[in-house]
Write a structure and sequence with these properties.
about 80 residues; alpha+beta; 3 strands
């Protein structure tokens, strides 16, 4: 059941928007779609934090079912993890 993500994600969305100097671009995917994509790519136990960073990416911190902590930057338009050059 994925309802446990609703409250932390809602908090992260409101906190992230209040802290950021620049919002996500107009063509950005809804945050709910970003979370859905993450859930399909990773074995997420729970999401700890989602924050919009002024470098243009969602910063997501979560714990996998194996107990490992994962931090990824997500492209707001594609929903894919940001790969460093």
């Amino acid at each position: 059941m994925k309802l446990r993500y609703i409250f932390p994600v809602a908090l992260a969305m409101s906190a992230g928007a209040a802290c950021a100097d620049s919002p996500p671009p107009k063509q950005a995917l809804p945050l709910s779609e970003i979370v859905t994509k993450l859930e399909s790519q990773y074995d997420i136990a729970w999401i700890d934090e989602i924050e919009w960073d002024d470098d243009g990416y969602w910063e997501v911190e979560f714990y996998a079912r194996d107990g490992s902590k994962v931090e990824v930057k997500i492209d707001p338009v594609t929903g894919q993890p940001h790969m460093h050059p």
